[in-house]
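Weekly sync, protein design subgroup
Attendees: M.S., D.O., the rotation student, P.L. (late)

Item 1: inverse folding check
M.S. brought a backbone from last month's batch and wanted to see whether the design step gives back something sensible before we order anything. D.O. pointed out we never logged the input encoding, so this time it goes straight into the notes. Structure tokens as presented (744 positions):
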């Protein structure tokens, strides 16, 4: 049952009314106030979370308090640290708000650990804190009732440290409002789940069972004991079976995946966490609990309507691996590279191969940045595998391939809050092959999968070619950039593997542009092209849109692949292709932006493949981004090409830029400060600031027909737009050379 600290008192637990809380003898000292930086960080984080909850934030749930109630006294087996902190917090807030009369009797909270701690709690109930300006611990130690021996009592000293921390954290807070939020019972701003013992009086026996070695409990030992109790309240026979299986058959399953400590505790808990989250999602509930203890109680506890069914699911998810060599099973169906009979997996969260079960045992539940190390797509793949093994579904490899393709295309759709719907899609696909029932995964990719399935039904001979394309690192299952034509697909698949090998990327960035504008428009004058240095831009360009949106990309790619399919020396063929196209454009005197990007390697150096234009279309005023945002350093590709072509080295400043694309981008000469920038008509010039350099600047400008401060480029009209008829980069490079030779 969910309650709060004050809500405990008067609460009926299995017919017994709680009148007081006593920390039992078998428990350790109060530790949250101990000295040391690590404990201080834990203490501060805990108080920060409580403060955020009581001062108008989201309510805070503190997981379990577990114990038995005998003769009206709750003796917690687990949760004494939290209860002690809440006792101190309520005492402080109630006295500061002048509402101490709302607190339980002074003997309502105490320690059986030692009489000194019990007496301190009683004395604390009799006194009121000093003015806010005085430190609580110093004031208390100066009181007549504070015994000298308490200075050596670890629990009392820890309480004093915590009281000082509470005083500091809640300094200036609205204590009246904070206390009011804490006094709303189950609706309190700070709550916990009270789990009573099934058999009152077995408290010490259970603690001894859990801690018979006399050492601190491991997280697994603590969880195992609590979990067995949770299950025993739901299904007593299942609890005995659970204990037997954890110590028996399931241990054999997890032993090959044990950690360096030669234990399987963490591995078993991580997999249990996965199974329990999976159960929660299948119930249609997004996961909100961050810890497996709370989640397990919510799913398998007696309060859950479907607890018995969920326990059956839990046992099935563990039992199914008893008959499976996990490494061999996953190697049979998945691989990290492209193979004819397996499904290539991308973006796995570890370097330990394709054994998803073993990977789950190693890292499930661990964070990576703002996300999960065992990421959600991998979680869905493991869920699919479980569904297959438990339900004995047919055609698993084929259906897993379709699922892989859908997951790779659904980066925008796969979110934690949508996992219940995503699990429904996974189940429908693995159980029935029902791609048409997909509703949460990417629907455009689902349509692609149906089209590919139809192609394979009619032309099974193209299966190997189609799968080879799907397994390519740049495509990852998405073939929207290809015509699903049985006549051309095998030829294009073979050519694509050759053309798009990494060593050819720099050449392909030029060669593909000769067949058309294959870029993907991202809106707001942003355009994505392939990159000579990175795979991600190619993946975005070739797979980042639906089939209709990729029509021009598909046409350009098909022409390139047709051209390169039979080339013996591919690099030479691509170079010749580029040179022929440039010569044709020069003969036509049609030097648009594509001409410059194809001709000058420097203009394709942006690792991201991202260009931002000053106008809605690509043109002569561009930003070439190395990263993905304009607030990072980027290049003006035309100015960079002029610098490189001029060959003047550090006589020109090596300029990068930041900010909006319409900000002026000047390329200055290092000695004189004269500069130029690219505009539609050519290059706008800026004179040097001093008179000595100005005379040389004017002379060079006159020699190069500069008028109105513009180095004009001859232009013609094409499709209603002005297009260069001569090479502006070459013309500007000559001007720069002349300026440097003049001493500018």
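Designed sequence read out in the meeting:
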């Amino acid at each position: 049952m969910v309650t709060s600290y004050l809500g405990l008192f008067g609460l009926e637990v299995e017919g017994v009314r709680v009148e007081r809380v006593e920390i039992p003898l078998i428990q350790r000292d109060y530790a949250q106030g101990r000295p040391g930086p690590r404990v201080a960080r834990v203490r501060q984080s805990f108080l920060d979370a409580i403060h955020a909850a009581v001062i108008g934030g989201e309510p805070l749930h503190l997981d379990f308090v577990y114990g038995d109630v005998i003769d009206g006294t709750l003796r917690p087996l687990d949760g004494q640290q939290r209860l002690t902190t809440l006792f101190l917090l309520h005492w402080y807030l109630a006295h500061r708000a002048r509402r101490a009369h709302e607190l339980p009797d002074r003997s309502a909270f105490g320690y059986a650990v030692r009489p000194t701690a019990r007496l301190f709690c009683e004395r604390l109930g009799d006194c009121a804190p000093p003015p806010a300006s005085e430190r609580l611990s110093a004031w208390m130690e100066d009181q007549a009732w504070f015994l000298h021996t308490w200075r050596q009592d670890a629990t009392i000293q820890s309480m004093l440290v915590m009281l000082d921390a509470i005083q500091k954290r809640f300094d200036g807070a609205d204590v009246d409002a904070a206390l009011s939020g804490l006094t709303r019972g189950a609706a309190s701003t700070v709550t916990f789940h009270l789990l009573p013992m099934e058999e009152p009086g077995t408290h010490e026996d259970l603690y001894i069972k859990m801690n018979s070695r006399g050492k601190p409990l491991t997280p697994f030992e603590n969880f195992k004991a609590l979990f067995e109790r949770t299950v025993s309240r739901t299904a007593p026979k299942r609890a005995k079976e659970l204990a037997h299986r954890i110590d028996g058959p399931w241990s054999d399953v997890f032993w090959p995946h044990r950690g360096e400590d030669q234990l399987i505790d963490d591995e078993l808990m991580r997999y249990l966490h996965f199974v329990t989250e999976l159960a929660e999602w299948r119930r249609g509930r997004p996961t909100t609990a961050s810890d497996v203890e709370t989640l397990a109680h919510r799913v398998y506890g007696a309060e859950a309507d479907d607890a018995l069914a969920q326990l059956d699911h839990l046992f099935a998810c563990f039992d199914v691996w008893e008959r499976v060599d996990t490494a061999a099973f996953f190697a049979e169906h998945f691989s990290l590279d492209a193979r004819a009979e397996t499904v290539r997996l991308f973006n796995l969260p570890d370097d330990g191969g394709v054994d998803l079960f073993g990977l789950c045992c190693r890292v499930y539940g661990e964070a990576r940045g703002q996300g999960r190390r065992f990421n959600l797509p991998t979680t869905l793949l493991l869920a699919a595998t479980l569904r297959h093994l438990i339900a004995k579904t047919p055609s698993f490899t084929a259906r897993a391939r379709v699922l892989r393709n859908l997951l790779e295309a659904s980066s925008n759709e796969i979110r934690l809050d949508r996992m219940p719907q995503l699990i429904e899609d996974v189940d429908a696909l693995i159980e029935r092959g029902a791609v048409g029932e997909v509703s949460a995964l990417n629907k455009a990719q689902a349509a692609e999968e149906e089209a590919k399935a139809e192609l394979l039904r009619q032309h099974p001979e193209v299966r190997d070619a189609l799968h080879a394309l799907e397994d390519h690192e740049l495509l990852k299952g998405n073939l929207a950039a290809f015509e699903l034509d049985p006549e051309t697909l095998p030829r294009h698949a073979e050519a694509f593997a050759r053309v798009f090998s990494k060593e050819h990327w720099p050449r392909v960035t030029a060669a593909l542009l000769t067949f058309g504008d294959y870029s993907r428009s991202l809106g707001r004058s942003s355009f994505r092209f392939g990159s000579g240095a990175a795979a991600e831009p190619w993946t975005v360009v070739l797979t980042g849109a639906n089939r209709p949106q990729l029509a021009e990309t598909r046409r350009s790619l098909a022409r390139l692949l047709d051209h390169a399919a039979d080339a013996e020396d591919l690099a030479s063929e691509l170079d010749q292709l580029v040179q022929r196209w440039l010569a044709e454009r020069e003969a036509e005197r049609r030097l648009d932006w594509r001409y410059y990007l194809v001709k000058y390697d420097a203009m394709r150096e942006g690792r991201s493949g991202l260009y931002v234009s000053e106008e809605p279309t690509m043109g002569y005023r561009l930003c070439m981004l190395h990263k993905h945002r304009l607030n990072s350093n980027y290049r003006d590709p035309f100015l960079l090409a002029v610098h490189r072509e001029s060959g003047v080295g550090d006589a020109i400043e090596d300029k990068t830029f930041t900010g909006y694309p319409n900000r002026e981008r000047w390329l200055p000469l290092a000695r004189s400060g004269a500069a130029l920038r690219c505009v539609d008509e050519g290059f706008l010039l800026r004179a040097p600031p001093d008179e000595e350099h100005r005379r040389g600047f004017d002379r060079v400008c006159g020699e190069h027909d500069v008028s109105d401060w513009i180095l004009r480029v001859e232009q013609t009209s094409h499709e209603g737009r002005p297009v260069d008829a001569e090479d502006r980069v070459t013309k500007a490079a000559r001007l720069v050379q002349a300026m440097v030779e003049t001493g500018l």
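Discussion: The chain has four domains: 2-217, 243-449, 472-588, 662-741. The first strand starts at residue 2 and ends at 3.
Action: P.L. to compare against the previous round before Friday.
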